[in-house]
Amino acid sequence: MTEEKRTEDGQVEKVQKKSLEKSPAREEEKTKIVYEGGGSLDARPGQADDVVIDDGRIEAMKEYLSPEELYQDLIARVRRYHPSDDISMIEKAYQVAAKAHEGQVRKSGEPYIIHPLCVAIILADLELDKETIEAGLLHDVVEDTIMTVDEISEEFGPDVALLVDGVTKLQQINFRSVKENGEVRTPDQQEMQAENLRKMFLAMAKDIRVIMIKLADRLHNMRTLKYQPPEKQQRIARETMEIYAPIAQRLGISKIKVELDDLSLKYLEPEVYYDLVDKIAIRRSEREAYIRQIVEEVGEHMKNAGIKARLDGRVKHFFSIYKKMKNQHKTLDQIYDLFAVRIIVDTVKDCYAALGVIHEMYKPIPGRFKDYIAMPKANMYQSLHTTVIGSSGQPFEIQIRTVEMHKAAEYGIAAHWKYKEASDGKKVEAQEEEKLAWLRQILEWQRDMSDNKEFMNLLKSDLDLFSDTVYCFTPTGDVKTLPAGSTPIDFAYSVHTAVGNRMIGARVNDKLVNIDYEIQNGDRVEILTSQNSKGPSRDWLNLVKSTQAKSKINQWFRNEFKEENIVKGKEMLLAYCKAKGLSANDLLKPPYMEAQMKKYGFKDWDSLLAAVGHGGLKEGQILNRMQELYDRDHPKVLSNEEVLANVAENAQARQMLPRAKSKNGIVVKGIHDVAVRFSKCCSPVPGDEIIGFVTRGRGISIHRTDCVNILNLPEPERARLIDAEWEASQEETDGEKYVAEIVIYANNRSGLLADISRALTEKNIDILSMNTRTSKQGLATLAASFEVGSRDELNRVIDKIRTIESVIDIERS
């Protein structure tokens, strides 16, 4: 049976009517153990359902429920947490939305009203106020129907209208991984746009609830992404991972962040995702039994200690496991803390008491304790984290927090900021509301600014949020970030130098404005240009606010002498080649010239020469890069013997050079002026979690906490372990170098060793030694020792080597 339906695009199509009755599976109630972020697994018959509990993940609604069933479910959820029984405005919002979307269908063939209902249900799971629920039901009516914001304001009040209008504006923001002409954006451009969009969310959303509605909207769209074509699945999933999941994380809403991450991984890396699902499921029963055993053991000890506690155990969500595997360059079998146990107690005092019980029960792994209660994370997360070794020898993580901390961890800002209402539906007093508004602004700014000094300056200026920056749109929906007080001239030069130089006027929000107009947050700016423009005026220098615009205006006046600068630039390049022994004939060829023109944004070679001539570019900048490109295209192929000989020669030469004495950069808890050395068994580098071992007569040996020798240390020897940490972060090592050792497994081939050596050289890595052996089956095992400044640098080196042909795997020794 078919009927005509109007699609989201307004087209009429014939669709097969689906039964919206409950599926048979829904009638059967099952006991479930929920694996965080990874869906749910049926428990075996007869298992107790009060030992391992739900991790609080926002429930995804099953398909094929009718709108009326979903609406009744929504009302039931609201009534579970809301003190008022008056749901008349929610009922009205549902009826208005249903009428506005009547005849529209989604890609799944379901009535469109299903989507806003599911969005409202997600918001109800976050226990948000009724206005937010109403706005969730109405969030698409302005964009997809003929209803206006003014009509919503008349029917539901200015608050709901503001929320709907805010969500509508957010939906106008475009994030494109590919430009409209098909040219792929550079990674820097993508990262810049992603960060700008995250800022745009916070700057435009005058009410934090706008962002919450948008996150709920994106979560439901991700849950139904399978109905979209593959190309759109990829685009939406990447946008979700790069924009929406980070926003949820910044706001501390882990319930949404976790699911967005996992769903993004499912569509961006389906093979990785389903491989994780399969491998984790293989030992499911064994893992469930172990988790239940731990929960029961801990529960019994808490009871004996007089601590009232609620416990749950769960496997960490798939994206978290994937990220750990990728960052640590490990396989799933090498990740030892796949699951965690949560202990939820009543008071902070109970948290520390429970920690004492845990450390009495199990041996803690040194260096793995984190006190986020005393030192909360920036997004208000509080908890005690410790990693211990269970009775079977398997490590696992324990998290201890209060009920309030657990709500904050799950709901983030939604738990700390809600429109509290009395049972009669009246809002709290204005004074309390002001406190909540103050907290909201602080949280928004705190999550957006990493610089503590800027954050404090903001507090001192009476919380004038985003006073030093404005965010505006191009006509195509891209976001531009400009200094406060910027004019259309600043905007024009932020788009392109040529746009600024040819500017003759501007429209803001489709209205002509003067060139000294001050751009406001959310303005849509269009620059008017003319080929007949005589260029910028020197008066513009008194109007612009951005350094970029001032620099480009000054540059235009320098280019008035372009012909002279072209000749001078050409002479400077040739002179540099002669002085450095470079071949101008080899380097000054079209492919290398075009690469430099593209890199520095010049349309022709003469413009680049002029820049060199007037001092805007150094001749060495240009020619050294061209030499690198030439060497890349004309590589010198070395034999394995030559590579090893060069490594040995370079290592010997380095030994002849004076080296500054290293203080190791290690702080050992409670001990000063003691000899400290790095163990050769695991070669720790800054960024690794470390632990000290008190040797007999040779000071303290520093190991990675995941070092095999530390994990397998006999019980009597564990008393000699001592806490240690890096004195500085891995970004602040002052150029100090540390020895790292890796083992590379690859299918042997001619030139393999040369390729690996070249990869290290390209990363400016000093190779200390390289040894290789090959099995009869042709498997090459290469042990390489080299110097790095941090774990981040080491990971970049490993990632580079992984791209080499025939490399199978890499592991740290």
Can you put this structure into words, describing what you see?
By secondary structure, the protein is an alpha+beta fold. Helix content is 46%, strand content 16%. It is built from 32 helices and 25 strands. The protein is flat, with a radius of gyration of 31 Å.
Structural class: alpha+beta
Low-confidence stretches: 1-57, 177-184, 187-196, 416-439, 441-467, 656-663
Helix content: 40-55%
Rg result = 31 Å
The helix tally amounts to: 32
| Shape summary | flat
Please give the alpha-carbon distance between the first and last residues: 65 Å
Biggest sheet details: 6 strands, mixed
Q: What is the mean pLDDT?
A: 76
Q: Could you give the count of β-strands?
A: 25
Strand content: 15-25%
Q: Can you give keywords for this protein?
A:
single chain, 813 residues, alpha+beta, 32 helices, EC 2.7.6.5, GTP diphosphokinase activity, RelA/SpoT_AH_RIS, RelA/Spo_fam, HD_domain
Structural topology:
Layout (H helix, E strand, L loop, with lengths): L1 E6 L4 E5 L7 H4 L4 E3 L5 E3 L24 H15 L6 H13 L3 E2 L8 H12 L4 H9 L2 H4 L4 H8 L1 H13 L16 H18 L3 H16 L6 H21 L3 H15 L1 H13 L1 H21 L4 E7 L2 H11 L10 E7 L2 H14 L1 E2 L5 E2 L12 E6 L5 E8 H9 L1 H4 L13 H19 L3 H9 L8 E5 L5 E5 L4 H8 L1 H5 L1 E6 L2 E3 L11 E5 L17 H12 L3 H19 L3 H4 L2 H11 L4 H9 L5 H15 L6 H17 L9 E3 L7 E3 L11 E5 L5 E5 L3 H4 L9 E6 L11 E10 L4 H11 L4 E8 L4 E10 L2 H12 L4 E6 L1
Parallel strand pairs: 1-5, 7-11, 18-20
Antiparallel strand pairs: 1-2, 3-4, 6-7, 8-10, 9-10, 10-11, 12-13, 14-15, 14-16, 17-21, 19-20, 19-21, 22-24, 22-25, 23-24
Helix pairs in contact: 2-4, 3-5, 4-5, 4-10, 5-8, 7-8, 8-10, 9-11, 10-11, 10-12, 11-12, 12-13, 21-23, 24-27, 24-28, 26-28
